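Q: Could you predict the 3D structure of Anthranilate phosphoribosyltransferase?
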Amino acid sequence: MASVPPPSESTTPPLVDIKPLLQQLWPGGHPHVTPERIAEAIAHFFTNQVTDAQAASLLICLHFTTLDLQADVLAECARVMRLAAAQIDVPALNEVIKLKNRAGGKYRGGLCDIVGTGGDSHNTFNISTTASIIASSLLLVSKHGNRASTSKSGSADLINNMRPRAPSSRP
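A: Sure. Here are the predicted structure tokens for Anthranilate phosphoribosyltransferase:
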């Protein structure tokens, strides 16, 4: 897992004003707001081009208009999230897996993933990340996660503070 820190002030693109979209959505929603327009606004979250207040306002509008439950809106937002995600060099990854030759028993030697719930607001121990480290002694484990949102540390915080450093998936 690799976490990419937010861009520095000098590389942050200019802010985008999504207020016109917010005004169309609130109060009561607007039947002509397309999933693509909503997803375009969501895409700006990943480049830090909207303020926290506007991001929160959009999420609140989507919730109270129930657009956050619409399959077409969810699908389009998932599409832009996947576009913003770090891309993995699959051929290089497959080569590393093949070289490890960890197959044994019913385990074929591929990647395992251990995920936790995160964001539970209960300040619980980060067991999924710890379990992935322990399991990695026998299995090839791919761990993903994020920085803390409701506690003192998330998966990315823990792994990025370990030595040796986890490699970045971005150049």
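Q: Anything worth pointing out?
A: The chain is about 40% helix and 5% strand.
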